[in-house]
User: Which sequence fits this backbone?
């Protein structure tokens, strides 16, 4: 019997779509496998994921990039929001991309600003810290995520290679729902369906009395 929290075995006819969903955002072979282990399983799924990544031109292009020189490691923080790494990426469509990373949880945010000014950096960083408050409900903001941002949402829900835990769980204490959750069986709905089937068959259940 498979545990409720264990990966769900997927039928062959839907595996191609699931592989595309796991590969969304081009996470690479290792991260795609880590994400798959949280949701799904079938024989040789690791080989299928390797085949998808190796056949992706974008993944291969980034995989051939030269390794950067080793850097002096920072001391690892012991809680979220203790240290943020903030930097600007190259201009994109006449906008600057401000990248903010929470070091403890590996939660990544990208803010677009008109120019790399002190005011823009301060306002975006304050907004990022405000949205990272675990006492604030994140349901409404996550529902507004557009298809172009699904790669970022997948990153929040993918276990990080260093921590082994998703950034969302470390920072927010919760795991936002994604389309991959649909591959798991709905235990509550299954129970209600069995109840309805039992009524149609005339089953009245068993009345048990403890202590008699």
Assistant:
């Amino acid at each position: 019997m498979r545990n409720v929290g264990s990966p769900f075995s997927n039928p062959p006819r839907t595996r191609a779509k699931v592989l595309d969903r796991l590969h969304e955002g081009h996470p690479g072979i290792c991260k795609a496998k880590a994400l798959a282990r949280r949701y799904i399983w079938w024989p040789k799924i690791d080989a299928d994921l390797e085949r998808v990544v190796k056949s992706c031109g974008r993944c291969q292009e980034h995989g051939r990039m030269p390794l950067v020189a080793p850097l002096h490691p920072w001391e690892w923080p012991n809680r979220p929001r203790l240290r943020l790494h903030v930097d600007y990426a190259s201009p994109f469509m006449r906008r600057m991309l401000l990248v903010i990373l929470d070091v403890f949880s590996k939660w990544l945010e990208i803010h677009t600003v008109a120019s790399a000014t002190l005011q823009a950096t301060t306002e975006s960083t304050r907004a990022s810290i405000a949205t990272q408050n675990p006492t604030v409900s994140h349901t409404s903001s996550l529902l507004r995520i557009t298809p172009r941002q699904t790669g970022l949402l997948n990153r929040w829900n993918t276990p990080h290679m260093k921590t082994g835990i998703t950034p969302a769980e470390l920072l927010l204490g919760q795991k936002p729902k994604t389309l991959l959750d649909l591959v798991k069986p709905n235990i509550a709905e299954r129970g209600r369906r069995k109840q309805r089937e039992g009524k149609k068959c005339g089953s009245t259940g068993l009345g048990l009395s403890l202590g008699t």
Notes: Confidence is low (pLDDT under 50) at residues 134-148, 204-212. Strands lie at 8-9, 40-41, 84-92, 95-102, 107-113. The first strand starts at residue 8 and ends at 9.
